Amino acid sequence: MVRRGTRRAWAPARRWGRPRRGGPQPSPWVRAWIAHRRRVELGLVLFAIAITTAGHAIVGLTLDERLPPGLPAHALGLGALALAAHLVVRRFARYADPLILPVTVLLTGLGLVLIDRLDHAYAVHLADEPWQAQPAAPDQVRWAVIAVLLLMATLVTLRHHRTLQRYPYLGMAVAMALLMAPAFFGEDTYGAKRWITVGSFSVQPGEFVKVMIVVFFASYLMANRDALALVGRRVWGVALPRGRNVGPILAVWAVSLVVLFHERDLGTSLIFFGVFVAMLYIATSRPGWLVFGALLAVIGTVTVAATQEHVHGRVRAWLDPMAAFLPPERQPSGVVSDQAAQALFSFGAGELTGTGLGQGHSWLVRFAGRSDYILTTVGEELGLLGLTLVLLLYALLVQRGLRAAMVTPDPFGKLLAAGLSTVLALQVFVITGGVTGLIPFTGKALPFLAQGGSATVANWLLVALLIRVSDRAGRAVTEPEGNATIITPALVEASPPRGHRADRPDPIVPRQRANGRERRER
């Protein structure tokens, strides 16, 4: 019997002392560290909302000499959406990196400002072309709302990123079906077949495939990394992979060629093949895979460029962007576009600090100004300084993803975060290089900035997965070594597995320590 007014010694505390269902409360310094990260995230999210609101106000004052009538509603709506995403991160991913969400909110908000600014210009200067004068900002706002809701739903339902590891081959089969579907059911739009259209609704499957293939590649490489790391012959000092292990990369290369040949989608095929080669190098630390992959990429690109007129035209426009201004008898055969030249003119007009929001002429790029060539508006109206800051925001987002890959303890999480960061980096490089004339133009949409519902939703899904992996990485940092229920990395170099050089640290599997015994997770 227990007297009234007393409670058993083993009974949990009723209020603050009560342990959570998932385990004991973190230590006070861990709680302070978590609170600091979430306060930083909240402050940066509010700062991003303030910058976006100021951008809309500047555009309205420049174009109409008054504040936009819907500015308060837009600011409140964007702020409520961003704060709701922050609260979900605070509740379901409290250890996550505090910079990923604010950078994504800032890039998305800046994209809405630029699209709304171009809507005004298209309505004035291209009024005789209704399909171009139609505003795109309202649709982009709706897609942004859907994308943020998807991020919140992903964080609520996906409690651990290793759940994605259960059905890799099923996911890859679905990804391949979606990737090749436009070749058979898609419509030819501007020379490429990227979209599947049903009535007034269109979707670009390649944007979602890039996330699904990273999940499959991470699962496949984690299971087969030891065999792929074995060294074959050495050519010019470079250790090439064994012949029996090049089958997977040849299969991926063949699928990339199918996409490039039948869909004429240069950007998707480059990203698809490039991320696989990059993840192979990350998993095995063998430069031979980079050499072999680069050789296959050059062979495939040259072959398709010589046989596909659309890809050949992109290369021709890259080599001579001013050909559109030549007399008709001197212009090359085929379709000649002045978009590449107009993009270069826009960058030149922006100089260092830009002409100012609303005072540029990037609408001269015409139909692609709000999508493929939206970076020209950044270069013209914000100048080289603004363009550099935008690219640094992308670089910061990639760096935080790679940092999560380095810190998280499990191999699948490392490859998943590294692959997603590589996809983002490759997409930004391919688009920026094409718009600035560094490489042939590929026609992909710049993440978060450009118009496009499929791209916006898929990129926010990518960010949700990065936040989830960074949450597990944050937990690994705060958990003590020697706990038998967890596996945490120790700062000791791992012993190499069979097939690895003894003087090279293992890039994926960290040194593990549990109950005083060092072990390796496989």
Automatic annotation (TrEMBL):
Entry GO terms, CC: cell division site; plasma membrane
Membrane topology: Multi-pass membrane protein
Domain of life: Bacteria
Residues in the signal sequence: none
Pfam hit, one: FTSW_RODA_SPOVE
Keywords: Cell shape, Membrane, Transmembrane, Transmembrane helix
Disordered, as annotated region: 1-25, 494-522
Subcellular compartments: Membrane
One MF term in the entry's GO annotations: lipid-linked peptidoglycan transporter activity
GO biological process per UniProt: cell division; regulation of cell shape
Transmembrane segments annotated in the record for this chain: 40-59, 71-89, 96-115, 141-158, 167-185, 205-223, 243-260, 266-282, 289-308, 373-394, 415-439, 445-467
Main location, first listed in the record: membrane
PANTHER family listed in its UniProt record: CELL CYCLE PROTEIN, PEPTIDOGLYCAN GLYCOSYLTRANSFERASE RODA
Protein name, UniProt field: FtsW/RodA/SpoVE family cell cycle protein
Organism (species): Streptomyces sedi
